[in-house]
Design a protein that fits this description.
Layout lengths: L7 H24 L5 E5 L6 E4 L4 E4 L3 E5 L6 H19 L4 E2 H10 L7 H15 L8 E2 L5 E3 L2 E4 L9 E3 L7 E2 L2 H4 L2 E5 L3 E5 L2 H9 L2 H4 L2 E5 L6 H14 L3 E4 L4 H12 L16 E4 L2 H6 L5 E2 L2 H12 L7 H13 L1 E2 L12 H14 L1
Parallel strand pairs: 5-6, 12-13, 12-14, 14-15
Antiparallel strand pairs: 1-4, 2-3, 7-10, 7-13, 8-9, 8-11, 16-17
Helix pairs in contact: 1-2, 2-4, 11-12
Amino acid sequence: MERVKFSAREKRREVLARLEGFGHEIYRQLERGLFPQIVMPSRSTDNIYYDENLRQYVLGEKKKRRSAGNIGHIRSVAQLVWMAFFVHELTSNQKTSTLRDVFYSAQAYDIPFESQDESDNIITDLESILGCAREDFNVFPEERSAVFGDLTIEYTVPNYEGKRLNLTSHPDGVMIGPALTSAEFIETSADKIIAVEKGGLFTRFIEERVHEKFNAILVFLGGQAPRSTRYFIRRLNQELNLPVYIFTDADPWGMHIAMVIISGSANAAHLRDLTTPDAKWAGVWASDIVKYKLPSEKLDDLDIKRLNELMRDPRYKEDELWQRELNMFMKIQKKCELEAFSRYGLTHIVDKYLPERLREIE
């Protein structure tokens, strides 16, 4: 399903309409004396496939049905109906909640969730039913990403509507939270996005004024980037026409951090507006370990297992770069961190590696 695409106010109205439509259908079934049943896309692995045109994982046509007439389904049906009610209240009142808050809030209504994983899963089910992301419901994970650079935004959230902020205003960067992801982009002098996995490097780039030297907006991913950050990067790319360059540790996990930004994840196959298909994984590559003689460690068993999984993933077979670097990892059996460039001095990654790599890719 396509994610809702409107202005902030229009989007809220559309999300509320979809939630209310869901509720009305449950009520109509009850009025007819029927056990309520809910039909939703199957999110099982056999219903997820890679769409080469969209360049991301998507759900197939298989459906599953949950019915209150089935004793094994009563619990999940009740949880889904409560979840729809709860996020309707959030959206109506323009309030936000974290995933953890949702889990605890359910206890006030005597809705049993054994763990946050269970409540998170019910939110994902509701996403797949309505074609909305949880962020459209005003539900967010704990923020851990940030952005810094010459971009002026205008807030659209209550009490801040119309207020503007330049994202160079805070030396630690600006947190990528609900208010920022929904803000309007006013103006920027940047001509690219540089996204980095690690907080230490993000801080180093700010200190070394990478945003000015390379005319870039800097994004700190915080490891595997939260969905709100992936959505924000997509907006920067599509609305401002800014190319995206992703820098991660040189290991199978870093590769996958970049790939999830580019083509999404199987867990979010029911959503669309989270991918940036033309973003580039700019390093650190396995071949860089050899080329720059970087300090490295041996790949452990878990790394090798992950590497083999990536080699079977169809997304990594599309581009010569991914294949080359996967084979290089397998050959040298080594990994290293972004910080490894510090062996040549604290600013080497900014003075030498970054300009060389951007020239190579551009």
